[in-house]
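Possible regression after last week's pipeline update?

I re-ran a chain I had predicted before the update to compare outputs. Posting the input and the new output here so someone can diff against the archived version. Not blocking, just want to make sure nothing changed silently.
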Amino acid sequence: MVLLGLKIHTLPKLNKPVMIAALPDMGNVAGIGMDFLVKKLKAKLFAEIYAFWPPAVSYDHGLIKYEQSSYKFHYSQKENLVLFSGEFNPSDPRRLYELCYEVVNMAKKLKVSTLYSIGAALRQPSPAEPKLFAAATSPKYLSLLKKEKLELLNGKGQITGFNGLVLGIATEKQLDSVCILSEIDNPNIIQPKSAKLILEKLCQVLGLTPFDTKELEEEEKRKQFMEQQMSYMNGLTRKDNQPGIA
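New output (post-update):
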C-alpha cells in the first residue's frame, strides 16, 4: 500500500499500544533516544514514509548512487510499543504538517492509546543536573506526570518542530499525548545524558524493563572530554590575542 509517500510492509497486531514518536532536535536528544529504543528493543520495521531528503545523489568511482531517506515505524510486540523516528526534522511547514498527520493517522489505525514525544529544552549553562519537564494534551495526565516527579512546563511557550506539532495534531484527532523534555545547555553539541534521563523516566512511566544505558554514559564522557578540550583551546586563543603576548 502506497499513499502520500507511505509504504506499509505489514501492520502489527497490538493491543492498544503506546506510540513514542520523535525526530532529531537540539542536541539530537530525541534522535539519540529513538535510535536507542529501536536498537535495545530490537524493534521490527513495519512501515516507512519517504522523505524529501537528501537533495542530492552520491557517486563512487563514477557510479551514481541514489538512496532516498525515509521516516520509519517500528514495533515491539513484547512491550506493546510503536516507535516512529527519522534522520531529520522537516524545515518546511507544509511537509511538517503532512508528516504529523501521517504519524497520527497511523496511530489511530493501530488504536494507539497514548502518544509520547520526547526532546530537548534549552536552558542557560549550569553545572546542575538537567531537569526533566513534561506537558500533556489532557488534564487527566497532569497528576500522573506530577506523581512521576516530572516538572510541568510553567507559564506560556512553544514546543517547536515535529516533537511539538505532533501533539497538536494528536489532539485534533482525539488522541491523548504527552511530551517529556530534558534540559540542555548547548544545542550544537550532542546531549546523550539528557537522552538517558528521558529514557529512564519513560521506562518508569510506561512500566518498561530498565535499559542498560552504559553506552550513553560512555558517550557523555567523550562529550565532556571534547568540551574540556575546546574550552582549553579557546583559552589559549584568548591569551594569544591579548596585547603584548607573543
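Follow-up from reviewer: compared with the archived run. Helices lie at 29-40, 93-109, 142-147, 162-172, 192-206, 214-240. Marking as no regression found.
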